[in-house]
Each structure stands twice: as C-alpha cells, then as structure tokens.
C-alpha cells in the first residue's frame, strides 16, 4: 500500500486533497499534517511514497521550503507542491529545490491534480532504492509513420490516439533518451500551450498504450522540465 503525506494547514483544503487522492487509488494511505513541527516529526519517522505540501503553514510563509530541504536531506521523497503562491514566481524556486511539480491553487481542477499526483506516484515507484530510475528491460517496439500520420503501432497493435497526442508522441520518440522540454512540446500543439494541457495529452498517450499493454512505462516524467521516451532501442 502506498503511503502519502498531505501537509496543509487549511483543514478544508487538506480534506479535499485527501479525498481526491483516495478517489484516485484505493490502495493509498493518507496522513494529514497541519503544522511544520508535526510534519517534520512525521517525516523523520515515516517513509512516504509522495508528499503533497503547501508552502505557507500558519504564520510561517516559507515553512514548506524548510520541509522540502529536510526531505532532500533524508530520503529524497517526491514532493508535489500545492500553493496559492504565484506559479510564475515559485515554480522556478521549487524546481531549484528539486520539488517534482507545482500546482497553483484555484487554477487547476480535480482531474489535473489526480493526473499529476498519479504521474508522480508511478515515477516514484519506478525508482530504485537509491532514488535512481530503473532501466526499462524492454526494447523500443514502437512503429510510427510520420508521412501518413496514421495511428502508431505498439508491438504490432494499433494505438488509438488523437492527432495532437500523436504529434507529442512523435516528438518524444524522435528524441528518445533525451528530455523534451515543455517549451519544445508547445511547438507541436495547435492550442493550449501550457503545462497542464501537455500533461493531459501525455496522460492520454499513456492510457492508450496501457489499454493494449498494462505494463507500459515508456514515458518518463522529468520533474519541472518535461518528458522523455525512456525505452531503449531493441
């Protein structure tokens, strides 16, 4: 069972986040902490798969920053920051602190949160004991026809994807093994050039692959940067 910490001083918001997490997966145990002291004590004794936290806790404007620093010194647990602080300012700060992602309150829906959270949880589960990514054992078995823009084939089976998702998949596959940044992915979409929209398209791609291959894990989230086609050539 996965174990998640929600560190948020506003009780209704904390309960909402807990409800969203529990609705996303039945096998998740959620611990709620409302103060910096209680959160740091819990992080010292518990091993969490993911931590969801706010930056402001009570009167401490940057308590979340101190908690992230403490996490990085201990186990390097993946952190999803959910804060009212402006994303234009704080996303870069969180990136420098090695937070995995940043969502600004009031600017995202439940589905956006769940997609982001599950993406981080899957990536966390794929990491080895030292925090390094585990190399994918399978070779690259994707077939694309960029001239016809037909549906891609995965292990000989058709992957049902809309055209925009096909373009994103092609961009990732063309640069396989490399990080394709959000800014680069913006160039292959006609509209919705923002991170949330790109994440939705990537989620659509993953879901389509998992319909025919439940164990598919070929697209890796690179926190705060973009995505990478992680499977090696066969």
From TrEMBL:
GO molecular function terms noted in the UniProt entry: phosphorelay response regulator activity; transcription cis-regulatory region binding
Domain Response regulatory: 3-120
InterPro entries in the record: CheY-like_superfamily (IPR011006), OmpR/PhoB-type_DNA-bd (IPR001867), Sig_transdc_resp-reg_C-effctor (IPR016032), Sig_transdc_resp-reg_receiver (IPR001789), WalR-like (IPR039420), WH-like_DNA-bd_sf (IPR036388)
GO terms under biological process: regulation of DNA-templated transcription
A Pfam family this chain is assigned to: Response_reg
Keyword match Transcription: yes
PROSITE patterns, A to Z: RESPONSE_REGULATORY
Record PTM 4-aspartylphosphate, positions in chain: 54
Alphabetic keyword roster: DNA-binding, Phosphoprotein, Transcription, Transcription regulation, Two-component regulatory system
Keyword Transport in record: no
GO cellular component: a single term: protein-DNA complex
PANTHER family, alphabetized: REGULATOR OF RPOS (PTHR48111), TWO-COMPONENT RESPONSE REGULATOR ORR33 (PTHR48111:SF1)
Protein name as catalogued: Transcriptional regulator
Source lineage: Bacteria, Pseudomonadati, Pseudomonadota, Betaproteobacteria, Burkholderiales
